[in-house]
Amino acid sequence: MIDTPSPNFDDRTLPVTMLVLHYTGMPDAASAIEWMTNPASKVSAHYCVTEDGQVIRMVDEDKRAWHAGLAYWRGVTDVNSASVGIEIVNPGHEWGYRPFPEEQISALIPLVADIVKRHGITRGNIVGHSDVAPARKQDPGELFPWHRLARLRLSLPRPTKNLMDPHWSDGGFLLALERFGYDITDPVAAIRAFQRRYRPEMIDGIIDGECRSILLALLLPQPQGDD
Fold it and tell me: Of 39, 155, 174, 200, which one has the greatest count of Cβ atoms within 10 A?
């Protein structure tokens, strides 16, 4: 753990109930860390994980880091107050999106496990930036190995077993998506965010039987997947 404090934080107004994962979306780690420690940026995170597996602590967990921006999840509108934010170094879609190295994921997993255990965060509240801000964000993106976390019960799995298409109307699907947690103000963005997380091989913003089946399974008490 390397301490590189950021001045960009304030006081929480809510207890921690969420963990939000991001990618940095900048050319390299140095650029991202410089940006998050610059008072003018008004951006920060509690932790940053580099591609070679270094964990950088930037804001104390008892403070409100400025990582999520305008965001919403399961009725919470001040996601920054309710969450711990982790930035994962990756150029992102703008600078050459690429798979996350094994060293990076191997460092991320114990960090996530520790945070989740200490705060009692449920699997459904371990989310990506695109989940809480679907109209604005794509990170950590379709290449992020959520299945690695799911197998350790550190995120919800992609449902794969006993899938059934409920044949909801598109409006019914969106109501179910809202019930699950998403902001559906921009319906296509919400659908794409859901697909990026749970069906990353096809992100087209179109509701189909597979999307309906996956969402129905996620709404059941015990989602069954590849974990």
Answer: 155
**Alpha carbon 60 to chain centroid, angstroms:** 19
Give the active site residue among 34, 51, 61, 87.
87
pLDDT tens profile 127-162: 999 999 999 999 999 999 999 999 999 999 999 988
Residue 227 is predicted with a pLDDT of 44
d(CA 35, CA 157): 33
Q: Is the peptide bond before 140 cis (omega within 30 degrees of 0)?
A: yes
Given 3-state DSSP classes, what are the helix, strand and coil percentages for the chain, each rounded to the nearest 5?
35, 15, 50
Give how far Cα 87 sits from Cα of 23, 26, 43, 75, 123, Å. 5, 11, 11, 23, 19
Q: Alpha carbon 221 to chain centroid distance?
A: 21
Q: Per the structure block, which two tokens stand in for 93?
A: 């879609």
The contacts of residue 209 (CB under 8 Å, 6+ apart) are 165, 167
Contact 112, 44 (CB under 8 A): no
Q: What is the mean pLDDT of each run of 10 residues along the chain (227 residues)?
A: 97 98 97 98 98 98 98 98 98 97 98 98 98 98 98 95 95 98 98 98 98 96 62
Longest dimension (CA), the chain: 51
Catalytic site includes residue 51: no
Residue 211 contacts residue 199 (beta carbons within 8 Å): yes
